[in-house]
Amino acid sequence: MKKNWKYSLCWLVLLIAGFYLINTLIMFGVIDDFIENMLVTIGINIILATGLNLIIGFSGQFSLGHAGFMAIGAYTTAVITQHITSELGFILSVLVGMVLASVIAAVIGTATFTRLKGDYLAIATLGAAEIIRNVINNLKITGGSAGMFNIPQLCSWPTVYLLVCLTTIVLTNFIRSLDGRAIKAVREDELAAEAMGINTTKWKLAAFVIGGATAAIAGSLSASYVQTISPSNFGIMESISILVIVVLGGVGSMTGTILAAIVLGVLDTILQNFGALRMVIYAIVLIVMMIFKPSGLLGNWEFSLKNIGHFGRQERG
Amino acid sequence: MQTILQQIINALSLGSIYALLALGYSMVYGIIKLINFAHGDIYMLGAFFAYFAINAWHFNFLLALLSAMVISAISGVVIEYLAYRPLRKSPRIAVLITAIGVSFLLENGMSYFVGSNARSFPQVIEQVNYEFAGVQISNIQLLILATALTLMVLLQMIIKKTKMGRAMRAVSVDPEAAELVGVNVNHTISFTFALGSALAGAAGVLIGMYYNQIDPLMGMTPGIKAFVAAVLGGIGSVPGAALGGFLIGTLETFFQSIGLSAYKDAVVYLTLIVILLFLPAGIFGKNTKEKV
């Protein structure tokens, strides 16, 4: 415990340094609105993808419905902040969104996780997300298929930065905790884990609910920052693009997920100049990457300050 | 009564198109356990090839259908060879991401070359409406049904009666054991892709005639729904995929006709989840027990 305290302090210093670095660069005009927008998008993608990686990479459950939970967060924020236009309203809306997403994730999870696995689970979660989207598409309060406009912008890049740090810290610590080990045990071998007395359904569900709640945070941030949302933003393609980040970074590596979110975010910004060819190039990069390095950028390697301290020694767990 | 009959006819023609698509998904999943996300885009390719063939070379319906099936089959085999074969030994999620990449590539490549606007499909056959006891059937609906049923029967014959069909069934049960008894697994997988893609191409031409409209992104939603149909029917089973396709077509038409068309997608997915919860392997699927 005492040893970890030193590393936690190091991380805190690094995170604060990162904040001031971005702040200074913005002050000197190195980061303009365009790049700031890119950074915020990357941040939101990091929250989404680390949450999905907890479900896919660590509990081994294949979910294709992440965009559904993002939609819940986004719409909760949009509806609440239109009535309470203040920072407090935004914080409230994030919390309500998380609770809503958790409840819905728990309902979907209880129904599907007990009976389905693998591709069947993927297609069921995809279906569940499409049902959420279809319902949003037909409600009055959400503005139907036209979506919602003029959502008050109550979050800026520091909010996103803070929440990226918070969710990453919570998720990585969760994975390394005793509970996290239970989740990894379920991934490695469900039957063996069950034989060891682990309630597999409970932990699969826990990962799914936590993942859903983080997706809701990302949705809230994106709705408040971009200020317009519509149901078509949260379709299958959105779920898939989050999945792509996770797989490209390496299923089972949070560091890889963060790296992939940054690489894809930058690639996307550079490719903006190519117009219609953009998605073609993106697709080719994706296919070539998977053929030559199917385990993703980092496999299941994790960056940790501790490993730099004792170079070469493998961290357990 | 008349409206019900009318809706049944509409449901059958839409359902048969879903069924054709679902068959390809089902076969490919049965043999290499891959949700081939690019399957819906092969259906788009088939529709676009027929569009150009009819407009530029004045092909008739049969020629357009057959040539679109051949082109789709070739593209399916090429995609399998270039993108999926190098990943035979990789984790399944990597293959899935590759399939998504291929799907992006086909959609956006097509948008890049022909533009992303919707085009109207040439009317290769003059539409004639027949009326039986107040129920309208167009010759196009009859043609769609007849084509789909013929192709399904042909497929069933290929799978059950030919040597290649037997090889397909063998590989889907156990690829390694099949290889041991002299089945060329790679050829069999290529053949499966060719068959599935040809059916998708045919479905593309038929949907072009049914809705009179095609665009580069047309494969995405029907693609997912066709996979849902395949899962519903029990993946790997030909009658199952056909039944699943008809079921989805019926559900959609029914909810459209009672004025709930806004919720038709939700109903399709809800049915899927409910059926999976009670029959995790689909309606005609075999339940496999996990080995300890």
What does the model show?
The complex is a heterodimer of chains A (317) and B (292). Chain A is mostly helical. Chain A contains 13 helices and no strands. Chain A has a domain at 32-236. Helices cover 74% and strands 0% of the residues of chain A. Chain A is globular and about 55 Å long. Chain B is built from eleven helices and four strands, in the order ααααβββααααβααα. In chain B, the strands form two sheets. Chain B has a two-stranded antiparallel sheet. A two-stranded antiparallel ribbon of chain B has the order 2-3. The longest helix of chain B has 31 residues, at 2-32. Chain A binds chain B through residues 56, 62, 111-112, 115-116, 119-120, 122-124, 126-128, 130-131, 134-135, 137-138, 191, 236-237, 240, 243-244, 247-248, 251, 276-280, 282-284, 286-287, 290-291, 294-295, and chain B through 29, 33, 35, 83, 86-87, 90-91, 93-95, 97-98, 100-102, 104-105, 107-109, 111-112, 220, 224, 227-228, 231, 262-263, 265-266, 268-270, 272-273, 276-277, 280, 290, 292.
Helix and strand topology:
The complex is a heterodimer of chains A (about 325) and B (about 290).
Chain A: H1 2-27, H2 33-58, H3 66-83, H4 87-113, H5 118-138, H6 157-176, H7 178-188, H8 190-195, H9 200-226, H10 236-249, H11 254-271, H12 277-292, H13 305-309
Chain B: H1 2-32, H2 39-57, H3 61-84, H4 92-114, E1 119-120, E2 129-132, E3 135-138, H5 139-161, H6 163-173, H7 175-180, H8 185-211, E4 213-214, H9 220-233, H10 238-257, H11 264-278
Antiparallel strand pairs in B: 1-4, 2-3
Helix pairs in contact in B: 1-5, 1-8, 1-9, 1-10, 2-3, 2-4, 2-8, 2-9, 3-8, 5-6, 5-8, 6-8, 9-10, 9-11, 10-11
Organism (chain B): Lactobacillus xylocopicola
Protein name (chain B): Branched-chain amino acid ABC transporter permease
Pfam family, one (chain B): BPD_transp_2
List keywords for this structure.
heterodimer; A: 317 residues; mainly alpha; 74% helix; B: 292 residues; 11 helices; 73% helix
